[in-house]
Design brief:
This protein is of the alpha/beta class. The chain has helices spanning about 15-25, 40, 60-70, 80-95, 110-125, 145-150; strands at about 10, 30-35, 50-55, 75, 100-105, 135-140.
């Protein structure tokens, strides 16, 4: 990301994969912007060695602020918070609130159960098969930027007043 001049917008944590990614982008001379809810910052998990750290009131504000600052969404393996954020970004796109690219990085098949669930939701009629077109899946981090660049430019101006 640093080599490509792409700014990282992330959840603001210094632990886990989030922290490792932020450290790597910073070490490469890149720009890193974190957004963390106050309660997590108070628990001392906020990453202070990044370009900018925004401390917000709650998780909802965090997601909206991250969304506003990002041009695309890349989903790495993660926990329940990552799953929540992923479903929300996909749902916002399904509702026509945005048209930003969403790329799920399925390293070693990590997201296969999620992908199976989305297929199951479509197969049972709870979502149209077009739901599968709301995101793109790639097998490695190295394919994220080329994939985003190959996707059409967003056609919609985000309707954030309806979030």
């Amino acid at each position: 990301m640093a080599d490509l001049g792409v700014k990282l917008v992330f959840g603001g944590g210094r632990v886990g994969l989030m922290g490792l990614l932020a450290d790597a982008v910073m070490a490469g001379g890149g720009e890193v912007v974190g957004v963390i809810p106050r309660h997590l910052e108070e628990a001392e998990v906020g990453h202070r060695e990044i370009t900018e750290l925004h401390i917000v009131d709650n998780m909802h504000v965090r997601k909206e602020m991250m969304f506003r600052m990002a041009d695309a969404v890349a989903v790495l393996p993660g926990g329940l918070g990552t799953l929540d954020e992923t479903f929300e970004m996909i749902t916002w796109r399904q509702l026509g609130l945005h048209d930003k690219p969403i790329v799920i990085v399925d390293i070693s098949g990590f997201w296969q159960p999620f992908l199976n669930l989305v297929h199951h939701i479509c197969d049972t009629g709870f979502a149209s098969r077009t739901a599968l077109e709301l995101f793109t899946t790639v097998p490695s981090v190295g394919e994220v930027m080329p994939t985003i660049r190959s996707l059409p430019e967003p056609r919609l101006t985000p309707f954030l007043d309806r979030l």
